[in-house]
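testing teh design pipeline on a random one, pls ignore if ur not involved
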């Protein structure tokens, strides 16, 4: 009887969007998923450590250190630094043949310590873009990332924009498996009715955290300007976050009409949320990908997408992309959305979970065999 190859996957949290992908990896490998525990700003991500019966799931002991990023004197983002020595302990116990680590932080350094000691390949699954990393390039961090670029031989990128950043570190294209940050299609296959019924139509939907980084204040200001011209439409905002009270106050100060706020919804409810609207507006100022855009495409909903989302160029045509910092452009794009003139969603631009899983499985399998792994410019494994 052939035993499955042991693969360890190190993540900060288990995202509901990744469950289907991880389940496919668990079918192919003896998979250990090690996570660092929950974060308070992901309050709907509960019990997903129990949703992978085919995998071993463990929590790495350690610390989560919250910190707030500020930009132009204002709160911009709420983040956590995961310092979990328990990742290394879990690797020693499981003794995997291949390790995959998310991001370029402490857990990746621990993975590389293990990989170096036992001569095991380490893959880094990276999502940052040139735009998201532009303010994170202090001398120490830049030095560390250049060191990792020399140390790590195997990379997985979220998509084209993430690959572009890795290339700036001098990483050869042949070392990068380029995929997409996929949504879980299973949540979007049911015949689900609309969850809400805002009036009047059309309905402009925002889904995500209510924090400065997401550009929600720019969205409200642009919408208020159009309502002041007499345009009729509703706003549906679904999400939680530290800036939710301030966002609600801003809507009142702007005298916005027909605006409804709802808390973040569990993944199984999101198809009904998307079907409650006519357009998703994604005004982010900084996102490695933007899964709500992928989910909207799966739900059949047109998207108005910020150029600062990593997925923008890969998933949308120019008509659907805008600069949220340019309020004149933002208003004109919203006008197109309200009049129903945005292009329909294009499913052909999305890579499916089975496609992404197959690419990862093929790459990790070859890596586990001790054969050097390389990719062509089109992303295919070399023979």
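output:
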């Amino acid at each position: 009887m052939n035993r499955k190859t042991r693969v360890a996957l190190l993540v900060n949290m288990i995202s509901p969007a990744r469950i289907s992908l991880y389940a496919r990896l668990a079918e192919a490998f003896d998979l250990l998923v090690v996570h660092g525990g929950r974060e308070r700003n992901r309050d709907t991500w509960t019990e997903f450590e129990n949703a992978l019966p085919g995998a071993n799931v463990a929590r790495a002991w350690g610390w989560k250190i919250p910190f707030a990023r500020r930009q132009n004197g204002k709160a911009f983002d709420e983040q956590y630094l995961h310092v979990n020595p328990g990742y290394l302990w879990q690797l020693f116990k499981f003794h995997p043949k291949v390790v995959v680590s998310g991001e370029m932080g402490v857990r990746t350094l621990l993975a590389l310590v293990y990989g170096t000691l036992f001569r095991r390949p380490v893959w880094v699954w990276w999502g940052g873009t040139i735009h998201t990393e532009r303010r994170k390039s202090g001398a120490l961090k830049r030095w560390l990332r250049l060191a990792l670029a020399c140390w790590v031989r195997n990379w997985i990128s979220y998509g084209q924009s993430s690959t572009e950043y890795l290339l700036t570190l001098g990483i050869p294209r042949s070392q990068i498996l380029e995929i997409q940050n996929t949504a879980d299609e299973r949540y979007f296959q049911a015949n689900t009715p609309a969850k809400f019924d805002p009036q009047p139509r059309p309905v402009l939907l925002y889904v995500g955290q209510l924090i400065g980084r997401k550009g929600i204040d720019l969205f409200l200001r642009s919408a208020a300007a159009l309502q002041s011209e007499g345009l009729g439409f509703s706003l549906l905002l679904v999400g939680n976050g530290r800036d939710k009270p301030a966002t609600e106050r801003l809507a009142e100060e702007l005298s916005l009409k027909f605006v409804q706020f709802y808390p973040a919804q569990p993944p199984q409810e999101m198809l009904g949320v998307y079907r409650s609207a006519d357009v998703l507006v994604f005004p982010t100022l900084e996102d490695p990908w933007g899964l709500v855009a992928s989910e909207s495409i799966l739900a059949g909903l047109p998207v108005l997408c910020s150029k600062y989302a990593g997925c923008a160029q890969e998933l949308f045509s120019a008509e659907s992309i805008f600069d949220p910092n340019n309020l004149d452009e933002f208003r004109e794009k919203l006008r197109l959305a309200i009049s129903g003139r945005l292009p329909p969603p294009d499913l052909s631009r999305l890579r499916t979970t089975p496609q992404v899983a197959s690419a990862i499985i093929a790459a990790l399998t070859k890596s586990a065999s001790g054969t050097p792994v390389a990719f062509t410019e089109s992303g295919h494994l070399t023979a």
